[in-house]
Amino acid sequence: MPKKTAAAKSEEVTIDGIFGPGGLLAKRHPGYEFRASQLEMARIAEEAFAKHQHVLIEAGTGTGKTLAYLIPAIRSGRRVVVSTATKSLQEQLFQKDVPFLQKHFAPNLKAALMKGRANFLCRHKVHQMEGQPVLKGIDEIDWFAQIRDWEKLTETGDRSELTFLPDDADLWNRMDARSDLCSGQKCPEFQNCFITAMHQRAQEADLIIVNHHLFFADLAIRQDDFGSILPEYSAVVFDEAHEIEDVASDYFGRQLSSYRFEELARDTENLLRVLQIEAAPLRRHLARLRERARSFFERFPEREGRYPFGPAERNAFVDQNREAYDELAAAVKRIETELSALTPKPEEVVSVARRASEMRRELAFLIESEEKSHVYWYERRGRGIFLAATPIDVSEILRERLFEQFDTVVLTSATLAVAGRFDYLKQRLGVLPAAESVLPQEFDYPTQAILYIPRALPDVRNPSFGASAAAEITRLLEISQGRAFCLFTSNAQMRDLHERVSRLVKFPLLLQGTAPRSVLLDRFRTTPHAVLFATASFWQGVDVPGAQLSCVIVDRLPFAVPSDPVVAARVRVLQEDGRNPFAEYQVPEAVLALKQGFGRLIRSKTDRGVLAILDNRIQRMQYGKIFIESLPAYATTQDLAEVARFMAQPEK
Ligand code: SF4
Questions:
Q1: How far apart are the CA of 202 and the centre of ligand 1, in A?
Q2: Cβ-count burial of 438 within 10 angstroms (0-12 exposed, 13-18 middle, 19+ buried)?
Q3: For position 6, what pLDDT does the model report?
Q4: Nearest-5° Cα angle at 286, 280 to 289
Q5: Which residues does ligand 1 sit against, CB inside 6 Å?
Q6: Residue 356 near residue 339, CB atoms below 8 Å
Q7: Pocket test for ligand 1, best of 119, 121, 122 (most atoms within 8 A of CB)
Q8: How many Cβ atoms are within 10 Å of 213's Cβ, its own excluded?
Q9: Which residue ranges in the chain fall short of pLDDT 50?
Q10: Closest protein CA for atom 7 of ligand 1
Q11: Domains and CATH numbers, the chain
């Protein structure tokens, strides 16, 4: 069992003595402001750790929820894993909050940051690549020299330290520490390996900070007795817990993309070059593998998007393309055989042969499996085809693997409850009996934000909607002087309205897809009066405090696309159970998405602005009430003049 932490609870100081008015936080944190909901959250979290119970806490933006779970976690004396939605949130916790806690509360606190292996450098590969003709072009030669120098200095080997290396640099793929080519304890660098060091730090840590992807990657392999990534721990905190169903679905499902075949061929060729193995027949078979993979995957329809690929579709597909499928499976098998026949056979070669064997089994599962618990689909995205099998319902899996295995799971986010209740999330995630709390909002929403629902717009499904919505967006942008996010539920709608609005306003317009996400966000922050047109990926995890973001416009209620194979399968299963999928799944899902999207606007007590929803079903339809009841208590209007008056008020 995990050891007792060095940061165990001090008997003299109560949680109120830390978070309360005039408490330790106020004394030690310049500019700290007492927040009643933060104190309440810290009390609830402390009780959950003490009583070994699960808890769901909805805590709005501005609550200060990070300290409200971190301090109780370290006072619990247990080894706690904290899982966040993104790597940047992880780094924020590790680089900002942990040092603060070590300085003021728990000098002996040991914390470890864990990320997926592809984030770290493989020392063995660097040494193998030295002096080998494996670099392509001037850029790679320059980057390689810098990485080699950095490898001698860095303590972590974490790619995030390499600010000069572009996100899409292919060089990194050939140098990272993915398990595919790792020989583990047989590697001469094992003792110095950055992955070994990361695991050692985690073994000694009281607090382990991971992201949801790593957490569920670990949970999924624990079930198969393939060992584990994380050391033993006794409790988990999920921040941004509304995201875990999607991430868990990915890790408990199976996926295989066309890129994986290219990667297998590329990694094998690199390996042969680095190990200076001739193996002419194997090289010929690698060329054949590429050819067979291309031939197989080009048989999928050209249209972009996700489509069902269940037994009926797969059987029809295989009937027409039996030869291409068999040839691909045989080509992978051949690589496996050729690799296994090499002598001598270094550990890296065994590892690639194992990978070929896993890919062959994955391909067979994705094309032939009849398991009814999964929904099968494919997606064409750019040049890639992704085959996948996703569990239709992860609640059973999570109940068994997570909630029954660990007695304390803290789930928190600004968006967990629907109309004040947690029923939806509990049912989707299989949460066992848990304490529950929706904390009061810290912001004064009625004076900080006005929700505008235009009276006269046509229904979103009406062909005249685009022109009317463009006019409405234009009027809103004039009032807010740009400084707006226009968030859409589909790419087509985003592009259409961007095109229309660009003819009507003079503000600088930014469009998702024209530059990487981080570049667009930087431009938005630094360009006066900018307006960003974006879809799903900007609905969450984006933080633009201050007047630069003064308006958030949402085109329609964000219902998941009903034809999406995963959504359709989940709807069907609920129907078959005699339940009402619209009320129990589609509406709550959309409510949480809308709360997230609108949550972009008010990020601090001084932020003000307008929220607009151009979809009048929120007022016309019975279910609209659930959306309204779930949102914070914004001032609400249907009158644009009132929006203008609100925005003209001087800041308080
Ligand atoms: S142990 Fe694996 S990841 Fe680490 S240096 Fe060796 S091959 Fe690379």
A1: 18
A2: middle
A3: 43
A4: 145
A5: 122-124, 177, 182-184, 187, 189-190, 193, 195
A6: yes
A7: 122
A8: 17
A9: 1-8, 10
A10: 182
A11: 36-110+205-248+394-438 (3.40.50.300), 117-194 (no CATH), 254-391 (1.10.275), 445-648 (3.40.50.300)
